[in-house]
Amino acid sequence: MSAENSEVSNNSIVIIGAGLAGWHVIDAIRAKDKDIPITLVTADSGDRYHKPMLTMAISQKKSAADLVRATGVDAAEAASVKLLANTQVTDVDTTTQQLQLVSAQRSDPANTDYATISYGKLVLAMGAHPIFPKSLPEDLVWHVNHIERFGQLQEKLATGSQHVAIVGAGMVGTEIAEDLLKAGHQVTLIDLNDAPLSQMLPPKATARIAQAVKSQGINFLGGCQVSGITRISDSSNGSDSDGKLQVSYEALASATGSTTAEPIEPLMVDHVIASTGLTVDDKLPAAAGVEFDRRTGIVADAATLRTNAAHIYAIGDCMSINGVACRYVAPLRAQAATIADDILGHEHSGYEHKPPMIRLKNKAISVMVTGVPQATGNWQVKTESDDELIMDLLDDNEVVSATVTIKAPVIPKA
Q1: What top-level class would CATH report for the domain 13-128+280-344?
Q2: Within 13 A of 313's CA, how many CA atoms are on the CB side?
Q3: pTM (two decimals)
Q4: Taking a C-beta distance cutoff of 8 angstroms, is the pair 27, 13 a contact?
Q5: CATH architecture of the domain covering 130-274
Q6: Nearest-angstrom CA–CA distance, 230 and 269
Q7: Per-residue pLDDT tens for 324-342?
Q8: What's the CATH class of domain 358-407?
Q9: DSSP H/E element including 116
Q10: Residue 88 falls in which region: left (phi positive, over 0), alpha (psi -120 to 50) or beta
Q11: Which residues are in the FAD/NAD(P)-binding domain (predicted)?
């Protein structure tokens, strides 16, 4: 359902965003109250799917449709939710507790019909979106952060083995690299750092990950920065829409030991995927007067997940607790349960944020992280052998604040 002139009662709940976070809030509320009015506003169709599967689906030959557990329409009907699909929220008036809506499918602002709805409680579950540095033009570069865009990329890759460059070797970029390799594609993984996951783990740990990635046949270019991407016209059909991409990049001074970056012969590839991090759009938080940190997103109270604005909560990728962005799936159920109890006026003990266990979904190496890791700090080796590395991050009081365990894969006996 697109935006229309519609009224929502002042005791109702409005949720912005139909990702895992938004649907978890709906599940949690409906588990405790079957009747309270809920409206879900989303810029897409609202379909339910498990986003982490996007980094594994190409090699498994699962299409976007295969990943959808329920369409937005069916899920909304099952949960007795009013779905405003393909609808964007353009403004939040916290005084009147009203939202201004517009159809996300209208391209001409002059012919756009606006609508307003009221809310009793508002939940911001709008997620985060990919960062595209200036050197990665959005019209030439893919991202794997949403099922619709994933489906479009998958269609392009279905024509046969192709060369794909992935910019950014964090968790997502490293997982996609293996997935594409397993699907039969040539993969080049490019990162500013010398090894994958270098913004999370110490060099001794990331060196093992880099070795495992390279051993698979992935071309890893560490210490390199992409400076530009251009489309090379396909002379065979007179069109540049399907031509090769030229990826210009340079070796950073820190990697070469020189005083300046050194240009390298450009790569010629079929596709480029950006995996250069996430950011939260500040327009709605700013409109609502919600406290916002440009680096970590919406600031939420640690115990209630309320924002500083009355009647407004935040959950998932768009919010942060105690200065740390919450961009993992595991805590969402507990976050949603707390928001549901707080909105419904139920007694609750408050949300207790526990850093989730982080696992790299790669077969080439087993990487498991607990706590709140960071690349720098007092990392101490606990166990070290050819097959296993365990390191602890100690805080100023010599207390373990994070642990990484890296194991070589178990190779089945013939």
Answers
A1: alpha beta
A2: 30
A3: 0.90
A4: no
A5: 3-Layer(bba) Sandwich (3.50)
A6: 11
A7: 999 999 999 999 999 999 9
A8: alpha beta
A9: strand 114-118
A10: beta
A11: 12-328
